[in-house]
C-alpha cells in the first residue's frame, strides 16, 4: 500500500507540475478541466497496472538427466523432526503486543468518517436551503432567494442570491450568467468528486492542490462564458468582481468569490491562446503521459526462456545428477542470495537472502533436481527441501490433534483433501480425527499475502497407496508435486551441520528454525541426524539481524 501511495502521489505531482508550467496561464479552460480530472484519475490507476515487456522466448522442457553414481546412499533419521504437530506441541505462548495496524486503521476510519459527515452535512444544508426558500426558474437552473447576506454562489442546480439584493436590482446580469454557467457545465460534479477523494485520502496533500486548481479553473470557465460574446464588457465585469470580494460564503463546497482568485481571474480575462499554441501544448502532453505510464506502472519482463513442465515424466530419487544440473541448481539459488560470509575455524558460514519467497517455476525446478541428487550433492545446497511424509513401512498412525482438526473446519484459507480427493470442509464433520492414519499441511500460497493452504488426510489404505506411488522408484513429476515440500533456507553451515529456516503453513503462520547435526554411521555407511526446532523463529530476511540484536522469540523442541 505504501508503494502504491508513493507512486500515485509522485505521478499526480508530476502532472500537477506540468499543469502549472504549461497550462495554468493559458486560455484553454475546457481542456484544462479535462486535464485536471484525467490527471488525478490516471495517477490513481497507473500504479495498479502491470507493464509487461515481452522478450523473445524459447521453450525449455524440464529435463532430469539423472546419472547413477554407485549405490543409493541410505539416509537414516532418528526421527522425522519436521512434522508440524511435533512443533506445535512444544510451542510457547507469544506475549501479545500493540497491534499498530489495527490502531492506524481505526484512526483512518474515524477521520474519514468525519470528512464524509462534513461533506454530507454541507450537501444536505444546500438542498434544504434550496427547498425551503422561494425560487425562480432560470434556463434550467433555479435562482433561490435567501435572506442571508452573502455573495451569489451556486451548487448543483441552485443559484443562491440574497433576496433584498435581487429584488432591488443590485445583482448584475453578468453575475447571474457567471453562476448559471457553473450550473450548466455541472461544475458541482467535479467538486463532489474531489471532495470524496479528500475524504478517503485526507492525509495526501496532492488532493488539496488539485481541488484548488479545479475550483480556480471553474471560475475561469464561468468568466469566459460571460465575456466571450462581448469583449467590451470586460472592464465593467472586472469592476463588478472587485466589489463582490468584500463578502464571503461559509459553505466550503460551493462556487463563489475570493480575493486572490479574483486577481487571477481579472488577469486571465485578457489572456489569449492561439490555436497553434494550444495544439503544440496538447501534443507535448502525449509523451509526458507515456513516460508517466512507463515510470509509475508495475513493470515486469517475461523470461527469455519459458519452462514447460512435463508432469508425466518420471524421475529416480537419490541416484545423483550430472554436474550440469548441479550447476543449474546453484545458478537458480544464487539469484536469491544477497551475500555469503565465510566463517573462521570457530564460526559457521553465514548466508543472507534477498527474499523469503521463491518464484513458482524456480522452486519446482529446484525440487525436481533436488530429489534426484544423492546425499553428498544435497548437503552442499543452500536451499534444501524436506518431505514431511515418508514411506509407509508399517509406520504408526499419526492423526491430527483436536485443536488443529476443529480449527481447519472453520478456517476460510483451508482446503481439504481425503485420500487424494478434494472435498468440502463440511465433510470433516462426518469423521472423527482418529479416522485418519496420517495428514500433512502444505502451502497453496502464490505470494507473501496469500495464506491459502491445504490439509491432506489419508486413511491407512489410502496412505499405503500414496506411499507406493510417491516413494517407489521411479516417480512421475506430477505425483511428486502433489504435496508441496518444505522449502528450507540455509542460514548457517559448518561442515555438515547447518541451521535452516522454513515457513509454517496453515493456521500457524510464521517461520520455524532448525539446527541440524549430521553424524556418519560407520556401521552401514549411512547418516543419522539430530535436530533442535525453534518454532516461531525469524524469516530468512530477519534471521541474522535478530540474532545480532539478541532477539529470541522462538520456542524450542529437541528431537534426537
Describe what you observe in this structure:
There is one protein chain. This protein has 560 residues and is α+β, with helices and mostly antiparallel strands. 42% of the residues lie in helices and 21% in strands. It is built from 18 helices and 22 strands. It has helices spanning 2-23, 29-45, 84-89, 100-132, 163-167, 173-184, 187-200, 205-227, 234-244, 259-268, 275-296, 323-334, 360-370, 375-378, 402-410, 460-471, 477-480, 543-549; strands at 50-53, 58-61, 135-138, 141-146, 153-155, 158-162, 298-301, 305-308, 314-315, 337-341, 349-353, 383-386, 414-418, 421-423, 438-443, 453-458, 475-476, 486-494, 497-504, 510-521, 526-537, 555-559. Strands 10, 11, 12, 18, 19, 20, 21 and 22 form an 8-stranded antiparallel β-sheet that branches. Strands 3-4-6-5 form a 4-stranded mixed β-sheet, with helices on both faces. Helix 1 (2-23) runs antiparallel to helix 11 (275-296), helix 2 (29-45) runs antiparallel to helix 8 and helix 6 (173-184) packs across helix 8 (205-227). Mean pLDDT is 81; it is low at 62-96 and 554-560.
